[in-house]
Amino acid sequence: MNQSVQHSFRALGDSTRRAILMQLCEEDLSITEVVEKFELTRTAVRKHLTILEEGNLITVTAIGKERISKLNPEGLKSVAEWFDFFSHFWDSSLNSLKYAAENEALKQLNERSKND
Amino acid sequence: MNQSVQHSFRALGDSTRRAILMQLCEEDLSITEVVEKFELTRTAVRKHLTILEEGNLITVTAIGKERISKLNPEGLKSVAEWFDFFSHFWDSSLNSLKYAAENEALKQLNERSKND
DNA sequence: TTGACATGACACCAAAAGGTGTCATATGGT
DNA sequence: ACCATATGACACCTTTTGGTGTCATGTCAA
After folding, report:
1. How many CB pairs under 8 A join A and B?
2. SS3 A85
3. Which of A26-40, A74-88, B57-71 has the lowest mean pLDDT?
4. DSSP H helical segments within B14-91, as ranges?
């Protein structure tokens, strides 16, 4: 589960793969179709799709001689939910409380030097 | 801006950096303090912090001879918002509409072969 | 069965990533 | 001034990563 998050983030770390994901928002694609839309070798595309599949961001279904890649909302949602861990921090009201109550180390430093 | 998203995702692609981010949720840290909490060389930690800073996920403030790394909610929020692009897909009601209306390629394939 | 067509499976490569160690520099306190 | 502390800046190394090309395999249709 946690390992899956690692794979998901790894998959999202490449701009080509993010572009493929966004393309898959509009239509499911076979490997060859992805090759046609992106200027890449079939081997390269296959690798990207494998990594996206390992990251649980797409599902691949073999239909005849084609392998259709399809966006996987579950995986994307999992990654999006990872950010909930930090959500307090961009909730402004909680934000100030957070810094006031918990941030002992920086408070001390701020007392010593006021140029923050 | 788009480049920044690339940097953010790159930064998030490494588990050590994600761990550092989560630690920074609890307290701001100097480089040395990060070194003490994670079993890494100072040089390695510095690289990670630089990448996190490039990804706009932390801000670094020089205080005296220390460089304090602090979580940057703005950057995290930006990345989280990137996922809004896909949010239709995990909204179940919109989801079915999406597939029914737009997914022509797979529809055709499904008509040819019913083992989906 | 035979030939396209869509892939799978490798071997190979250059560049980037993650780490380590060493030497130089700046800041604070005594 | 002087020394310990916290970094900055490199040079160097190994493993991954993103890509390419080639050959084998499976599937559909004539």
Report:
1. 109
2. helix
3. A74-88
4. 15-26, 31-37, 42-54, 73-82, 87-90
Structure tokens, A37: 């839309």
Query: Span B62-87, mean pLDDT?
Result: 93
Distance CA A1, CA A7 (A): 10
The C-alpha atoms of residue A68 and residue A74 are separated, in whole angstroms, by: 17
Question: CA–CA separation, B32 vs B38, rounded Å?
Answer: 10
Alpha-carbon distances of A96 from A18, A100, B59, rounded to whole Å: 34, 6, 17
Q: What is the CA B24 to C1' C30 distance in angstroms?
A: 34
For strand B29-30 and strand B58-63, is the pairing parallel, antiparallel, or unpaired? unpaired
Closest Cα in chain A to B7: A13
**Would you mind telling me the total number of residues written for chain A in this entry?**
116
**Contact of A32 with A80, CB cutoff 8 Å:** no
Torsions phi, psi for B113 (to 5 deg)? -140, 125
Given a contact cutoff of 8 angstroms between Cβ atoms, the answer to whether A50 and A10 are in contact is no
Lookup: tokens for B68? 């304090």
Per-residue pLDDT tens over the stretch A65-114: 999 999 999 999 999 999 988 887 777 544 554 444 444 444 443 433 32
